[in-house]
Amino acid sequence: MANSIRFFLNGQKQDVAVRPDTTVLEWLRSGPRLTGTKEGCAEGDCGACSVLLGDAGDGEIRYHAANSCIMTMGQIDGRALVTVEGLKGETLHPVQAAMAENGSSQCGFCTPGIVISLAGLAANDAAADDHAIHDALAGNLCRCTGYRPIVEAARKVVGEGGAAIPGPAVAALAALEPAAEIATSGAVFHQPQMLDDLLKLRRDRPGAVLLAGGTDLGVALADFHGDWNEVISTAHVRELRSIEETPTHLGFGAAVTWEEVLARVAPFYPSFATLIRRFGSTQIRSMGTIGGNIGTASPIGDGPPALIALGVEIELASSGDRRTMPLEDFFLDYRKTEMKPDEVIASIRIPKPAVGQEFRVYKISKRYDQDISTVCGAFSIVREGGIVRSARIAFGGMAAIPKRVPEAETALVGKSLDEDAARACAAAIRNALSPLSDWRGSAQYRLTVAANLAERFRRDLSGETVEVMAL
Ligand SMILES: Cc1cc2nc3c(=O)[nH]c(=O)nc-3n(C[C@H](O)[C@H](O)[C@H](O)COP(=O)(O)OP(=O)(O)OC[C@H]3O[C@@H](n4cnc5c(N)ncnc54)[C@H](O)[C@@H]3O)c2cc1C
Ligand code: FES
Ligand code: FES
């Protein structure tokens, strides 16, 4: 058992006896007084608190941007943390220099976060184009400079090479194994490495918080200044971090991040990939996991409608049992699921596309990036000789749970996907669903949009529409 959290901060090894549920932002600003990392929204939205988080693997350290306001100290044990102060060595980091030379900052509040995001991009994507730059900045809000000069500065640096992140040596980081258990200041943080150990902890410590990336749980922690006296982290469980590909399926452990899912799903389901790129921001996708998105059981989560339409099965595991079920059977009622207190979601199996299968998913939100869905509709059909042989249609934001709509599927099966079929499908959607009104959209708006997506799907498949912002 460790009595401190060990990690590298800007290349220097740290051994810090702080409560593991302290946010990284709080510690950075009040401990070592690294105040370049700012607090704006304190809920993962604005990017002012962005830091780089590095993990050793395959002979290198791979860094990604993350929001320190919703990330806890326990989560950085065994990892490398780089703040904006750490980017500058003898000279400015190339992103810092380009931002300064280009007049890309006015009040400067957002600037450290923007520098961090672009430094992460420059280190990871040697071929970054404008789409990649916009993607990297989607989680960073600048209120006064405007993005043109920021993007111009980014263009000068990304793709140029030579913009490595200053951090520890790979071997030094690799040698810093995450502790199985950290106990400091009355709080305990468990980091099992094997599924069996995770399941035993889950059985024996029913009161502990089950934490994956923390992009849902961390918001509540930061907002309500709660205490997590005992946490079980899934972030290092080997089986939950695994990705497998068979001739028929893609299998993801529940602790695989959305950024990792994106890379594997894109060749098979480009429309799903577009949805994932709109999922929060790089910072959120690099921490947030596919299992956490299901486990949180939000009626407006983006993963479930797409995954239900794709016919995904999930595996639930406890120390005595394993069971699989179609994802749509997992959700019972508002935030209520099939999962028992001693279970975890272990894995998610996505079937590869069948011959003749077409899949589209549409996220309707007020902003294109970094926004929660008002409605998310996913359509999957298999056609043979121009006739729809099977269909799966699911929605988020239209009920207390992510919802499959069999009536709308029946309206398409046995028909060619023409205007009449799309109209019948739209009518079935309107009849089957009764959404609520909230500040994101009225029930009437939601019904109209959801039903119209049937026609949008038809037009997309017939080539009448183009994806407006296909990134
Ligand atoms: C700024 C911001 C933007 C966001 N944008 C989007 C968006 O566009 N679309 C969207 O859908 N969501 C969005 N989210 C929500 C969140 O990022 C996702 O739901 C994410 O997938 C959660 O994963 P996580 O690993 O961070 O979960 P955590 O916060 O760690 O956990 C979430 C819940 O799942 C449970 N859980 C985690 N792992 C397991 C497991 N293996 N088995 C059982 N239960 C488990 C936890 O106990 C907890 O109840 C956003 C969040 C923020 C802060
Ligand atoms: S302070 Fe806004 S994202 Fe963290
Ligand atoms: S420079 Fe003021 S918010 Fe970006």
UniProtKB/TrEMBL annotation:
Pfam families to which the protein is assigned, alphabetical: CO_deh_flav_C (PF03450), FAD_binding_5 (PF00941), Fer2 (PF00111), Fer2_2 (PF01799)
PROSITE patterns per record: 2FE2S_FER_1, 2FE2S_FER_2, FAD_PCMH
Residues covered by the 2Fe-2S ferredoxin-type domain: 3-87
GO molecular function, one term: xanthine dehydrogenase activity
Disulfide bond among keywords: no
SUPFAM superfamilies registered for this protein in UniProt: 2Fe-2S ferredoxin-like (SSF54292), CO dehydrogenase flavoprotein C-terminal domain-like (SSF55447), CO dehydrogenase ISP C-domain like (SSF47741), FAD-binding/transporter-associated domain-like (SSF56176)
Key words of the record: FAD, Flavoprotein, Iron, Metal-binding, Oxidoreductase
EC number: 1.17.1.4
Record NCBIfam families: xanthine_xdhA (TIGR02963)
Protein name: Xanthine dehydrogenase small subunit
Originating organism: Phyllobacterium salinisoli
